[in-house]
């Protein structure tokens, strides 16, 4: 960010200053003592357990840890699984759970604390039952209404098992030309976990009657053991015991001996009543320990990603089992009155913001609390939004139109992202309202990140679900309050349109801080009477004084100016061809404004330095005859920085420029004209600099090549480029590498256009008809080559239930859908698909299906989708079965199908998709949660220290950053995955390979569970599904895999991977490129190691010619290739001469042997190499590299070369940097 260049405290500096060990700041001076300080900071603690003094738990803790973190560590210890309701005591004194370990008097190294069981409350008892059910594997599958099927599933374990079962040669075999397999995205089926208990459920005798509640009864449980015995259990304040009740008789008093089992923990009771339980529980723990812990942990602070492809519902992975307790979990979680889940979200958020943040510990606690709060709120708001979309929540204003209705559910305020009341009529109606809600949630996130004292914002979540956009916000106190006559409903900003404007002075100070941070210029606005108001923010940004006395900022969708050049250009286009952009909410991105500010800051600094140098030179020339001029020269240079005052620099833009405001005086008009010119220059920078630079950086590999639409959007947004500029980017793509970028941009354009078209048809469609609609639209988009006239199989029984439903989607044909997509592409992205009439034949079907599914939240049943009419036996079977075409299936199920509204027999031709393939639709959620600032500061501080050479301090800060990430976000969170990945790269550069691999493994697991090899092979399989063949960055992956195989002395396999890398490079970048030359150089070395000297010579000659042509004869790469070429030429001549002499000797002796066949003599292609390989043993060459080098260099008869080189030497232009 630009602030780092200013002469003020930076986050990096703050992180280094704040880093402490045992309360002592780490500075460069105490570098040597760092390790000792850390060692002293951690100390062992002994915890003695109740009932058995011989069992003690030893845990290493930090003084900065809180007691409740220690409590969690104890609960997860195998010896303390049974405890959930307890407290700690030290020297007879109870320890508060919410204090730091360092605050407990006398608690230090070698101290011992006691775990003391507490009496249960009803809530504690419910939590204990839920925990024990999860622990013993009795929880069954949970049906979730939000997260979808297999949410957060990890493929790591199944891929890792494959990796262990194969050797290097097997692992290196890979079919590069095989089509993408959807099975690569599905987890492998596993053996079921050991069964410890048949069921743990709530008894029908719940809840306890009043007179027994008075005696301490909390719950009644029903347990069935593996032996088939059934027990009724009473949960009492003192623990659990077996009672005398049966299914027909109620008697919750304790049983008599020998079945008088009782214990404080339910786990202990299970051990007592079931003889097989201890062994089966131990087997379950061992079964769970075989899996990677990160792949099984439950997510607490992040919504797990839902896969777009899921197994068939008949798969064991999706099996729906009978479990009576599944319906009882709501009672166990929320209690009998369901009051545990009702929360005052707004008060919780604002109180959390008011928590102290003076010390590092304060900041960690505050940010962790806020992170958890946002996660809980996002989950609750998304669940409520789905209910609103399904019509299951009663509106507060049922007499209004559908889009104008508002709702309150679970203390969350919901409204539709549509122009229900005409607010955005002049801006573009529903399209403008939809964009405004998306911009608003981004604005709220920025305000939350800025964390300005005294300014509050409602937590905001936007949910896209089945064509509807729903906004969920916390209820601001006073927003529904009826104001007195003449009193404005808003205290700052526009009140009714822009006719009435309020400017309460109480909001000026916090809004000024906000505007400075957002680079917003203080500017005048005028109401309908021409009265002037000077506002700190956009007139659309509103301030509201809540009834709780807090100042709230609302409507943050206009924090940046309009992209006026886009609007003007589209108005011109509208006159020419009738294609008009759908709305006027074309604002610039905040990232672009920040980039501009950085640019202006650099220009200002350079101008200041030049001005100071000029003034100094002038002073020197005037005083050159005076003595001491040399001394003055030194002081001038050292004082230069002090003379530059950063406070004199300012950069800001007027967000209300070009928004229809009418200045009154000449001076005001002049000021507005200057503001408009600044905005116009910003728009020019976006078009003339930002977009071309983005394309050039991808071409030169300064930016990684995007993998899919999501990564493309992130990269564009990071550069401040809006998605509407996809057409501009496509027009700049020339050359082989950029043609791939062009194809990806076109695919993203089509996917986004289809999303808008599909949303139009889905928006008001009844829920049971949505699967039919989605399947039909997908058939028109992707299946027209298989069935050119798909028919929407609408169930007539459902159709009759919804006589008012808009079923216009049934009239859509592939041709009409293409026209709609062409119109949306031309309107929204300026991509003229209609100019190339056959665009739909060039799409990558599977990749486009994935993009569309991710954008609409579709979960499809995994199968081999048939997109074309080419015969495929497996696909035909799948399609036939899915469409109910099999004769046997028809005969068996005809009657049932005729009477069932949930299944439709298709009498028409089979299609690529049918309604049963659309298994589920999950919501697409955008939240306003801020990132943790302290963990980012520690990460930046660590990087900064390592760059400066302070390795120990740097590593300590990096580890501290990782700990902070895990503490604040929880282990499973996308931000934690990013931290793991960053640290893995840093540790790899520091030559700490083991730590780097461990962190990379964690990054993979957390990423796939929160973001949606053998490891390399699995990565290539995913590449084929996500992008398709020939992704530019796959060249590096193939090259790395080949080098790995070469290190393992699998020379033949290595050469095959190098050949594939060369083939992809020649197709993507070009056969005469430097990247191709570098790869050819490595391939030649690999061929030499694989005993193919003639083919090696051919490839090295090709490499040398490219280097010579591109870099000239004096370049080091050219010289190195020439040296190898000479060496390989001599070897080839010597080998040919030796073979000729040997053949002559045989002929003289009268022996007719066939001549030695030189591999690669006809062609250095892969096919020839494989053919010739049959004449060689398939096992890897057992000779050492030194022996191979001697063989490559020829036998003893040859001259020695000037210098020996190892096989790993190569040109300095490496593929990793170039491709």
Automatic annotation (TrEMBL):
Protein name: Uncharacterized protein
Lineage: Eukaryota, Fungi, Dikarya, Ascomycota, Pezizomycotina
């Amino acid at each position: 960010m630009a602030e780092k260049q200013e002469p003020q405290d930076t986050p990096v500096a703050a992180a280094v200053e704040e880093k402490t060990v045992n309360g002592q700041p780490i500075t460069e001076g105490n570098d040597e003592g760092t390790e000792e300080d850390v060692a002293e900071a951690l100390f062992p603690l002994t915890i003695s357990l109740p009932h058995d003094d011989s069992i003690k738990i030893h845990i290493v803790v930090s003084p900065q840890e809180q007691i409740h973190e220690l409590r969690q560590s104890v609960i997860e210890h195998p010896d303390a699984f049974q405890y959930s309701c307890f407290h700690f005591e030290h020297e007879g004194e109870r320890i508060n759970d919410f204090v730091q370990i360092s605050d407990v008097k006398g608690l230090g190294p070698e101290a011992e604390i006691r775990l003391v069981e507490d009496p249960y409350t009803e809530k504690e008892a419910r939590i204990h039952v839920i925990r024990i059910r999860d622990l013993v594997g009795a929880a069954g599958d949970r049906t979730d209404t939000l997260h979808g099927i297999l949410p957060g599933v990890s493929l790591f374990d199944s891929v890792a098992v494959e990796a262990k079962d194969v050797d290097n040669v097997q692992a290196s075999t890979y079919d590069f030309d095989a089509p993408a397999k959807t099975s690569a995205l599905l987890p492998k089926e596993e053996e079921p976990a050991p069964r410890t208990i048949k069921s743990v459920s709530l008894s029908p005798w719940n809840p306890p009657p009043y007179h027994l509640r008075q005696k301490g009864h909390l719950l009644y449980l029903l347990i069935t053991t593996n032996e088939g015995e059934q027990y009724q259990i009473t949960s009492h304040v003192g623990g659990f015991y077996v009672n005398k009740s049966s299914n027909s008789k109620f008697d919750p008093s304790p049983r008599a001996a020998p079945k008088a089992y009782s214990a404080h923990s339910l786990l202990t009771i299970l051990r007592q009543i079931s003889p097989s339980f201890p062994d089966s529980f131990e087997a379950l723990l061992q079964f769970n320990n075989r899996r990677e812990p990160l792949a099984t942990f439950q997510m607490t602070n992040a919504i797990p990603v839902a896969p777009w492809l899921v197994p068939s519902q008949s798969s064991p992975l999706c099996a729906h089992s009978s479990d009576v307790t599944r319906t009882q979990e709501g009672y166990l979680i929320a209690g009998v009155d369901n009051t545990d889940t009702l929360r005052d979200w707004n008060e919780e958020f604002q109180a959390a913001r008011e928590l102290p943040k003076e010390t590092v510990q304060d900041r960690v606690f505050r940010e962790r609390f806020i992170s958890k709060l946002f996660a809980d709120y996002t989950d609750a708001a998304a669940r409520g939004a789905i209910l609103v979309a399904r019509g299951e929540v009663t509106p507060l204003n049922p007499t209004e139109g559908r889009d104008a209705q508002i709702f309150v559910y679970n203390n969350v305020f919901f409204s539709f992202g549509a122009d229900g009341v005409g607010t955005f009529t002049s801006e573009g109606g529903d399209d403008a309202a939809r964009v405004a809600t998306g911009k608003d949630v981004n604005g709220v996130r920025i305000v939350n990140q800025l964390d300005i004292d005294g300014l509050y914002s409602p937590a905001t979540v936007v949910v896209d679900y089945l064509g509807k956009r729903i906004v969920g916000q916390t209820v601001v106190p006073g927003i529904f309050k009826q104001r007195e006559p003449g009193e404005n409903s808003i205290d700052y900003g526009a009140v009714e349109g822009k006719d009435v404007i309020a400017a309460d002075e109480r909001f000026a100070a916090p809004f000024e801080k906000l505007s400075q941070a957002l680079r917003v210029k203080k500017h005048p606005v005028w109401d309908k009477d021409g009265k002037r108001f000077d506002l700190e923010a956009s007139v659309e940004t509103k301030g509201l004084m809540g009834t709780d006395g807090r100042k709230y900022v609302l409507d943050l969708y206009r924090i940046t100016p309009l992209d006026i050049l886009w609007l003007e250009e589209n108005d011109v286009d509208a006159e020419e061809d009738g294609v008009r952009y759908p709305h006027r909410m074309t604002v610039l991105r905040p990232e672009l404004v920040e980039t501009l500010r950085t640019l202006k800051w650099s220009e200002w600094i350079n101008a200041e330095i030049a001005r100071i140098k000029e003034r100094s030179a002038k002073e020197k020339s005037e005083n050159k005859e005076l003595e001491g001029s040399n001394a003055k020269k030194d002081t001038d240079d050292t004082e230069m920085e002090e003379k530059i005052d950063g406070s004199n620099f300012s950069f800001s833009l007027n967000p209300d420029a070009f928004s229809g405001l009418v200045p009154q005086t000449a001076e005001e008009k002049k000021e507005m004209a200057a503001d408009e010119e600044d905005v116009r220059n910003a728009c020019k920078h976006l078009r003339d600099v930002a977009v071309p630079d983005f394309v050039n950086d991808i071409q030169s590999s300064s930016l990684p090549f995007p993998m899919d639409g999501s990564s493309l959007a992130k990269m564009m947004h990071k550069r401040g480029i809006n998605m509407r500029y996809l057409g501009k980017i496509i027009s700049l793509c020339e050359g082989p590498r950029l043609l791939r970028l062009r194809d990806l941009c076109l695919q993203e354009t089509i996917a986004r256009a289809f999303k808008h078209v599909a949303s139009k048809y889905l928006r008001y469609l009844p829920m049971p008809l949505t699967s039919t609609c989605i399947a039909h639209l997908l058939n028109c988009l992707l299946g027209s080559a298989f069935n050119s006239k798909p028919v929407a199989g609408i169930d007539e029984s459902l159709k009759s239930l919804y006589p008012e439903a808009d079923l216009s989607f049934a009239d859509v044909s592939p041709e009409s859908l293409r026209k709609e997509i062409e119109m949306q592409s031309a309107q929204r992205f300026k991509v003229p698909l209609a100019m190339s009439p056959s665009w739909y034949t060039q799409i990558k079907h599977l990749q486009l299906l994935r993009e569309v599914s991710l954008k609409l939240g579709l979960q499809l049943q995994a199968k081999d989708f048939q997109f074309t009419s080419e015969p495929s036996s497996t696909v035909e079977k799948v399609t036939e079965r899915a469409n109910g075409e099999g004769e046997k299936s028809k005969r068996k199920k005809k009657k049932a199908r005729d009477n069932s509204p949930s299944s439709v027999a298709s009498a028409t031709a089979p299609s690529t998709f049918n309604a049963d393939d659309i298994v589920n639709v999950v919501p697409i959620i955008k939240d306003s949660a801020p990132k943790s600032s302290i963990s980012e500061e520690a990460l930046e501080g660590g990087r900064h220290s390592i760059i400066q050479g302070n390795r120990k301090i740097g590593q300590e800060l990096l580890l501290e950053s990782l700990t902070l990430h895990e503490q604040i976000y929880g282990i499973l969170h996308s931000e934690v995955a990013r931290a793991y990945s960053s640290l893995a790269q840093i540790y790899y550069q520091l030559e700490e390979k083991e730590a780097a691999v461990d962190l990379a493994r964690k990054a993979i697991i957390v990423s796939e569970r929160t973001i949606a090899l053998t490891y390399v092979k699995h990565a290539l399989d995913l590449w084929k599904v996500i992008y398709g063949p020939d992704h530019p960055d796959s060249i590096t992956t193939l090259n790395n895999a080949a080098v790995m195989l070469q290190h393992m002395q699998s020379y033949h396999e290595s050469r095959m991977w190098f050949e594939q890398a060369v083939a992809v490079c020649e197709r993507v970048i070009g056969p005469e490129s430097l990247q191709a030359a570098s790869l050819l150089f490595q391939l030649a070395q690999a061929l030499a190691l694989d005993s193919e000297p003639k083919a090696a010579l051919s490839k090295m000659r090709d490499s040398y010619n490219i280097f010579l042509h591109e870099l000239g004869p004096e370049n080091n790469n050219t010289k190195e290739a020439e040296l190898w070429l000479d060496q390989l030429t001599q070897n080839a001549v010597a080998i040919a001469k030796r073979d000729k002499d040997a053949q002559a000797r045989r002929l003289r002796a009268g022996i007719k042997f066939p001549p030695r066949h030189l591999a690669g003599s006809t062609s250095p292609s892969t096919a020839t190499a494989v053919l010739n390989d049959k004449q060689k043993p398939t096992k890897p060459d057992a000779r050492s590299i030194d022996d191979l080098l001697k063989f490559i260099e020829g036998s003893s008869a040859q001259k020695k070369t000037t210098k020996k080189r190892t096989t790993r030497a190569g040109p300095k232009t490496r593929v990793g940097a170039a491709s």
